[in-house]
What does this fold into?
Amino acid sequence: MRQQHKTRALAVMIRELQYGATSREMVEASGLHVNTVWRWMRALRAEGLVYVEGWEKDARGCNLVPAYRWGNRKDEPQPPRKSGMQRMRDHRRRKSLRQIQDAFAGVTA
It folds into this structure.
């Protein structure tokens, strides 16, 4: 029974890879554990059967989630990360907007 489940899950993953999918999308479609999907993606990439088509934003908004696709092409390079100065600028901007929002809402610190 277990072997049949893995076989069906592999078929579902191959179908998802034809149009491009992230590991989270393959986990949801196949019902496998995320570690199993990652392990299979590493093995398929090592054999040259899948490649990284692009990078999608994760739950925090970072560009760290690879989108895989069936084929043997060169991986899309990962976008550069923000510098420390850019991260601090964004943090200060969010903090300032939060303070303005709290002032309008009547919240005191």
